[in-house]
Structure formats: structure tokens, C-alpha cells
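Here is one chain, start to finish.
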Amino acid sequence: MQDQSVAIKDEEAAHPIAASWRPILRKVVSAFVKGNYQLSRPIEGVSPVPPDVASHIQNYIAGYGETLVELPEETWSTSCAQWMGAYWDVLVDLYTEGEGASDLVLTGRMDEVEGKPQFTVGLVYVP
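Its structure:
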């Protein structure tokens, strides 16, 4: 996938994660790496994570048996977003200490709120 600076509204195909979204997604994964699944410290551009979602993410990562690591630059070559008519479905490939690129993904939804991206964490799982 090519580098993409802006989010593309295309209901027919997925596209690379917009460059403007990447810092937000990096901060979310960084919080998860530190065990902060509920994002107790708010991240600008990210909705609060409900306790049940945070618990599911924590349990799924623990059950996966690998240690999550910060997102490397390579993640953007395989991660994608697809316009769903009113928001984007986002899929971010995650990395672990032992595997590098893992089978785990972070899903979520990206909305535009007053012209700014607003990410809602979905789940972390193996599709």
C-alpha cells in the first residue's frame, strides 16, 4: 500500500491509514503496551474506552501469549481504513516482541468531529 496523507472516502476499497491519524493510533497502542487498556490518561482524538472493552483487550492480549510492542513504521504498509458512508473502519496490524508482525489487529472506528479525527477503540484480536 502507498503512503497516504489524507483519509479516502471510498466505500468500494480499503486504503492506507491517513498520515494525520497515525500519531493518534500510535498513542493508543503505546498505552496498551504500558498496560493502560482503559486509557486512563485521555488521548486527544480518542474516545474513552469502556471498562468491558478494556478488559476484553487486556485478556485477549494476555491469552495471545506475546508481549505487545510500540508500532513500527512498517505497520502502515499493511494497516488500512475503509469508508463506511459515515465513518471509517480502521484495522491496525500490531507487533509483538517475539514475532515482530503478529496476527493481532486493533480495530476501531474513525469519525470526523468538527473537521478533526476522533477514534473509537474497537477490539484487539486475531481475525
